[in-house]
Write a structure and sequence with these properties.
about 170 residues; six-stranded mixed beta sheet; about 45% strand
Length: about 170
């Protein structure tokens, strides 16, 4: 194979790679596509709202816009093994609605090729419901650690977002 063929092959492999933000919840690593996030901020004080769903953590003001925040640990019904120390909120957008997700900490970003992400087998071994999972990736750069790739669009349904919006308006 010539050098130009090797270069083309590398470029082709890179076309299917996407940038992912890797974060932790209770020492498990998860990833979401970077393009699905608006920003990542340090955790701050949230204002709780009465009669909100159990997984709803509260709201905060981000540059004049009220942002609802969900607790991914509660959303996924996780039973924590280690004491909680949450450091970050991931801000995402679904439709025209912004919302935040509390995570323990953001580990970093990494490019993952599409072929490195395997569809999960339905064997019930995950701590979270499989409907939230897009796939599993083994990070060779991280010593072969497994990262659960989440489908951010399935974390909150449009109906749940509307319910959060009503809770904010009625507050």
């Amino acid at each position: 194979m010539s050098e130009s063929e090797k270069t083309i092959n590398k470029q082709d492999a890179g076309k299917d790679a996407s940038q992912y933000v890797i974060f932790e919840i209770d020492r498990e690593e998860y990833g979401v596509k970077l393009v699905d996030l608006k920003e990542i901020i340090k955790i701050l004080e949230l204002t709780p709202l009465p009669n909100a769903p159990q997984f709803f953590a509260g709201v905060f003001n981000l540059r004049g816009k009220i942002i609802p925040v969900i607790d991914l640990e509660k959303r996924f019904s996780l039973k924590r093994e280690a004491p909680r120390v949450s450091e970050h909120i991931l801000i995402t957008e679904q439709g025209s609605d912004l919302y935040g997700m509390i995570v323990d900490k953001v580990v970093g970003t990494i490019r993952i090729a599409a072929e490195k992400i395997q569809k999960p087998q339905s064997i019930g071994v995950f701590k979270i419901h499989e409907s939230y999972i897009d796939g599993l990736a083994t990070l060779e750069q991280k010593g072969g650690r497994l990262v659960i790739i989440l489908n951010i669009k399935k974390i909150l349904s449009p109906e749940e977002l509307a319910e959060l919006g009503k809770a904010i308006v009625n507050h």
